[in-house]
Write a structure and sequence with these properties.
Elements lengths: L3 H9 L5 H8 L3 H9 L20 H12 L9 H11 L5 H14 L20 E13 L2 E12 L5 E6 L4 H15 L5 E4 L6 E4 L5 E3 L1 H10 L2 E4 L9 H14 L5 E2 L2 H15 L12 H9 L13 E6 L5 E4 L2 E4 L8 E6 L3 E6 L2 E7 L7 E2 L6 H6 L3 H4 L1 H4 L5 H11 L4 H14 L4 H15 L4 H12 L26 H12 L1
Parallel strand pairs: 1-4, 1-8, 4-7, 11-15
Antiparallel strand pairs: 1-2, 2-3, 5-6, 9-12, 10-11, 12-13, 13-14
Helix pairs in contact: 2-3, 4-6, 5-6, 15-17, 16-17, 16-18, 17-18
Length: 504
């Protein structure tokens, strides 16, 4: 109270009665007595906080809290998200009553607040340190609820963040995430702090000594940054990114967002990282994160070349020209059947390598029991077994252009049509990269004639690919001598030749 000093002075020094003091200051007698007993200003604490605007929404808020309590912790809405939901329902009050209601409800439900620990404030030079971590989130991909892994990067000086999502947490994902982050930051920090991830650390020794994964060290040597692993169970050593995980979950993944696929999701995450960089810097007043990031870009190490972040393993090709990777099968050219090839896995591609050359490349599939085939890999087998064309799985999935598909269906109904269509495919393969396009044009021309036969298609392909004849010369060059005497025929020479023949 502002009048404590005046009340005590008027009563103890001037000798005024309690009633007179209360009347002049418009205070009750009990209030004056409390002031006379207090030597310091009392802290007023209201026992019951009225919430008139929240009253009509308490049942709705309680229902939401009960529903969220049955979800995994990371999917529960925070008080801020519940407040925003109530605003959408028409709530006109402030955030404070909602926060207090949520806090009291959690206490009544037996959820005690987490005890706080004391920490030392940290300061990082520009361009020196970045922190890395994974988080486990839920999104709707093509209408299906899926659990995903999100890689988090945070530059410790500017607080600039980068996020990228993957179906799982594997070493090739770690390598790809770093390449994307360094491209996004347009530079590499000198140190990056990690948990003791199995994809990063192979063994933990005493203190800070670690045995890092060899493939991960290869990437670190490529970009010239120093990897640093935290002490086990000491997340505060990279507290910025730990807080970022919780904030991003609240800002971006609550409620559950929806996307068509990972490309759409990662494009949205990159856009949101740019938007969040416009927030005020938590320590440098008057500056945004984007402003500090502009300052931090200069001391970052330059990216001279992007690291090819693949993980390699050797596998034997099966008798059906397939290798099995992560419960899915991928085709290999037929000449490599029952031989060993190197399988290079990246976040989105699978490359099959042998003899220092790429034999095949496929888009990586993250389902199960999927068959990913290139029909051209099986063409040499069709030379010996043309009957496999009808029921071969690689050819049933083949998305051929419409003219080729129509001609194929017509030819397969003819006698020995399997072998005839295989000859067309062999001809297309011999033409290289333009072979399928040439076959499509030839099939289209054949359909226009109305007579469908493999011989006609072959003839059209040869006409389309035959060498261009040299143009006829209509005038002679100026340096060629000309004849001034006309050549006259001498038929008597033939008579002499006939006579020579009869004599001999």
């Amino acid at each position: 109270m502002d009048h404590i000093a005046e009340i005590r002075r008027r009563h103890f020094i001037s000798g005024e009665a309690i009633g007179e003091i209360g009347k002049s200051l418009n205070l009750s007698r009990p209030t004056v007595r409390k002031a006379l007993k207090a030597e310091t200003e009392p802290v007023y604490q209201r026992q019951v906080q009225p919430t008139p605007k929240l009253g009509d929404f308490k049942d709705q808020l309680t229902d939401w809290l009960v529903f969220d309590s049955k979800l995994p912790k990371r999917r529960r809405r925070t008080a801020q998200r519940l407040f925003e939901g109530l605003q959408a329902e028409g709530y006109q009050g402030s955030y404070g009553p909602v926060q207090r209601f949520v806090h009291d409800w959690k206490l009544a439900s037996g959820k005690q607040p987490v005890s706080k620990q004391a920490f030392v404030p940290l300061a990082f030079p520009a361009g020196e340190t970045c922190q890395f971590d994974w988080s486990y989130e839920y999104v709707l991909l093509d209408g299906i609820l899926q659990a995903i892994k999100v890689a988090h990067f945070r530059l410790s000086y500017s607080r600039k963040m980068f996020l990228v999502a993957y179906p799982r947490e594997a070493q090739e994902m770690v390598l790809d995430a770093h390449a994307r982050a360094f491209t996004y930051f347009d530079g590499v920090p000198k140190r990056i702090i990690y948990d003791n991830l199995k994809t990063v650390v192979d063994a933990i020794f005493v203190g800070k000594e670690r045995q890092f994964n060899r493939r991960f060290l290869t990437m670190a040597n490529h970009y010239l940054f120093e990897p640093v692993a935290c002490t086990p169970a000491s997340g505060w050593e990279k507290g910025q990114v730990e807080n970022q995980v919780g904030n991003v979950r609240e800002w971006l993944f609550t409620p559950t967002p929806s996307f068509s696929g990972f490309d759409d999701l990662n494009a949205w995450l990159a856009l949101r990282c740019q938007e969040l960089a416009n927030r005020s810097h938590p320590e440098q007043a008057g500056r945004t994160i984007a402003d500090c990031f502009t300052e931090e870009q200069a001391p970052l190490l330059p990216v001279k070349a992007v690291f090819d972040g693949y993980v390699e393993k050797t596998m034997r090709v099966s008798s059906t020209c397939l290798v099995k990777v992560d419960h899915n099968r991928y085709s290999v050219p037929a000449e490599w059947v029952n031989r060993v090839v190197s399988v290079r896995l990246t976040a989105d591609r699978i490359r099959l390598v042998a003899d220092r050359q790429v034999l095949a490349e496929h888009a990586r599939c993250y389902g199960r029991n999927q068959l990913v085939c290139d029909p051209w890999h099986y063409l040499p087998i069709l030379e010996q077994k043309p009957g496999a064309l009808r029921h071969g799985a690689p050819f049933q999935q083949w998305d051929l252009p419409t003219p080729i598909r129509i001609v194929r269906d017509r030819i397969l109904k003819q006698d020995k049509g399997d072998r005839a269509f295989v000859e067309l495919l062999l001809m297309a393969r011999s033409l290289g990269e333009t072979g399928l396009e040439t076959l499509e044009v030839a099939c289209d021309l054949t359909l226009q004639t109305g007579v469908i036969a493999a011989a006609i298609v072959l003839n059209e392909m040869r006409r389309l690919t035959e060498a261009v004849r040299p143009k006829a010369l209509h005038s002679l060059p100026a340096n060629i001598p000309t004849l001034h005497l006309d050549v006259q025929a001498d038929c008597s020479r033939y008579d002499s030749l006939r006579g020579y023949r009869y004599e001999h």
